[in-house]
Amino acid sequence: MNMIPYGQQKIDTADVDAVTDILQNGWLTCGPKVTEFENHLAEYVGTKHVIAVSNGTAALHIALLAAHIGKEDWVVTSPNTFLASANCAEYVGAQVWFSDIDPVSYNLDPVLLEKNWKKGTKAVVAVDFAGRPCNMPEIARIARERGAFIIEDAAHAIGSRFVFEDKEYKVGGHPWADLTTFSFHPVKTMTTGEGGAIATDNDELAERCRVLRSHGMQKTRADEPWYYEMSELGYNYRITDIQCALGLSQLNKLDRFIQKRQEITDRYNKAFADRDWISCPQLFKQSAFKSSRIAWHLYVVQIDFSKIGKNRAEVMSELLKKGVGTQVHYIPVHTQPYYQNKYGYHTGNQPIAESYYEKCLSLPLFSGICEVEVAQVIDAVLELIK
């Protein structure tokens, strides 16, 4: 029996050849492959600038630095996300508050965001959970009316699209985010091993991101090419040509990866439909805003553990014995000891995210999974009820 992880990269001969070519013939870092990757990714998402960095967390950190977010500022994000979406605000000395999610997409609920808006909020980090785009037009309306900067954390959503007022937009290439960040960790839809990127149409923000990813250094004298100046503190968040060679190869296959993930999602949805103990991911059916293509990063079901007489740990253990790896995405960030101790947040602050967390379980979803393995996952899940 195969052991099926919840997520995994898909590497083929073309990927290996691309990396080998760099190792044998090219720059290893700070070279032309970085620029080539940035240009191709910018074209793919439909934006003017892409700045590639060492990982998705670095992308979030630089985005807030580029926006001049700092002490005395508040940053709002979703409680249903990885730690980095909130931690990036702590890195720049800002303060974090959380706004609850909607029960359909598990993304920030614009109604609650507006209702609970905190004075002094200077940035919104909107997380595209599992690949589903946030309602960015509405989030942007709320934020911009209050003078706040908008970062779309699209770590899960490279290749996703949405429709607003009958026009389609790509994540990373629409006008409702000042900066969009991506992650290329191995479990994401495409990978550079580790890596991330920032997308923007704003020339000034793009230049600040480039400077900040490389120690804050700037070349200032054309007649002295060795000369540089550091006018502000930056970081070593650079990505290598080795990573970008892999990224270029992966980007060429991204649409195929997305299609395969959709096919797996469709199979799961069909297999688990009309059962009173498990709920599949749902879609918005709004007329003004809806997802037109979801690049599914995660396949998260909601399981009523009480109905099957097993707790989540027992379910995960039972599935693991049948070769099916699972994961939980995510423990609500506001319940983490750091945020509870610093801000006094506690269980009960974000009831929708907490209710979601009590039932969520991520099943295997990656483009390299085969038909037999998908059937193995389905059978193992359905056998939970027996």
Any overview of this molecule?
The structure is a single chain. With 386 residues, the protein is of the alpha/beta class. The model has no long low-confidence stretch (mean pLDDT 96). A seven-stranded mixed sheet has the order 1-9-8-5-4-2-3, sandwiched between helices. It has a three-stranded antiparallel sheet with strand order 7-6-13, with no helix packed on it. It is globular. It is built from 14 helices and 15 strands. Strand 4, helix 6 (136-145) and strand 5 (149-153) form a beta-alpha-beta unit. It has helices at 13-25, 32-45, 56-66, 84-91, 110-115, 136-145, 203-212, 241-251, 254-272, 305-308, 312-321, 337-343, 351-359, 371-382, and strands spanning 49-53, 74-77, 95-98, 121-127, 149-153, 161-164, 167-170, 179-183, 196-200, 217-219, 228-230, 278-279, 289-293, 299-303, 360-363. Helix content is 37%, strand content 17%. The protein folds into two domains: 13-253, Aspartate Aminotransferase, domain 2; 255-385, Aspartate Aminotransferase, domain 1 (Alpha-Beta Complex), CATH 3.90.1150.
Total count of helical runs of at least 4 residues? 14
What is the SS-derived class?
A: alpha/beta
- Span between termini: 21 Å
Q: What value does the average pLDDT take?
A: 96
Taking Cα atoms only, what radius of gyration do you get, to the nearest Å?
21 Å
Write the layout of secondary structure elements.
Layout: H1 13-25, H2 32-45, E1 49-53, H3 56-66, E2 74-77, H4 84-91, E3 95-98, H5 110-115, E4 121-127, H6 136-145, E5 149-153, E6 161-164, E7 167-170, E8 179-183, E9 196-200, H7 203-212, E10 217-219, E11 228-230, H8 241-251, H9 254-272, E12 278-279, E13 289-293, E14 299-303, H10 305-308, H11 312-321, H12 337-343, H13 351-359, E15 360-363, H14 371-382
Parallel strand pairs: 2-3, 2-4, 4-5, 5-8
Antiparallel strand pairs: 1-9, 6-7, 6-13, 8-9, 10-11, 12-14, 14-15
